[in-house]
Amino acid sequence: MKILCIGRNYRDHATELGNAVPTEPVVFCKPDSAILQPRLPFVIPSWSQDIHHEIEWVVRIGRVGKFIEPEFAWSYVDAMTVGIDFTARDLQAKLKSQGLPWEKAKGFDGSAVLGTWIPGPIEPGHFAISLEKNGIEVQAGTTADFIFPLEQLIAHVSQYFTLKTGDLLFTGTPAGVGPVSRGDELEGKLGGKSLLRLRIR
User: Fold this and answer.
1) Are 147 and 173 a contacting pair, CB within 8 Å?
2) What radius of gyration do the chain's Cα atoms show?
3) Torsion sign over Cα 53, 108, 27, 155
4) Could you give the CA distance from residue 131 to residue 110 in angstroms, rounded to a whole number?
5) Residue 76 contacts by C-beta under 8 Å, 6 or more apart in sequence?
6) CATH number of the domain that 189 lies in?
């Protein structure tokens, strides 16, 4: 199982980080060891002083596909949820300044948090996601605001990676990313329904 992630898929998020709006999907990967096991807290690693939350709409692939045409993309999705892509922003900035890959800042243990899955079939549409930190909404967006819609994302990544059953696709985060601290409580919602709760330690 692999975890494919899309960066800068919301225009407002690209702007808030001072990045150019991409002309094609920005793709990176997390190892499967990045998945935080259910009911465990997220432990801030000792080597970072600036861990940021990024709420995302996540889809799970239900069958093998390669060179998938956009019009068939939704038929490859068998479940959806919200997830958090934790990012060591300080380490990411250092790596980017040196022209190095981001993996250490994005793929460390526990950096991929998944909510409860909503099983398919998933009908094509737009979905609202949000994240609350200590009861206050800090991120909110809708897949209608994607720079690259799901059909285009699946078509694009399947040119380079064979999609297999169980693969995950994190589809990008809206504006409002920010740091987490020990003792924080996070709650992720999809369409207003709570699917993810997490304590920071």
Assistant:
1) no
2) 16
3) negative
4) 18
5) 61, 62, 63, 65, 68, 154, 163
6) 3.90.850.10
Q: Which domain holds residue 189?
A: 3-199
Pair 12, 175: CB distance under 8 Å: yes
Q: Can you read off the two tokens belonging to residue 158?
A: 């399947």
Do residues 83 and 186 lie in contact, with contact meaning Cβ atoms separated by under 8 Å?
no
Tokens of 1: 């199982």
The model's pTM? 0.95
Q: Is the model's pLDDT at 13 over the cut of 80?
A: no
Q: Quick one: which of 161, 148, 120, 190 has its CA closest to 10?
A: 148
Indicate the number of domains in the chain.
1
Strand partners, 29: 4
Average predicted confidence (pLDDT) for the chain? 96
Instruction: Give the separation between CA 188 and CA 49, rounded to whole angstroms.
Output: 23
78, 87 Cβ separation under 8 angstroms: no
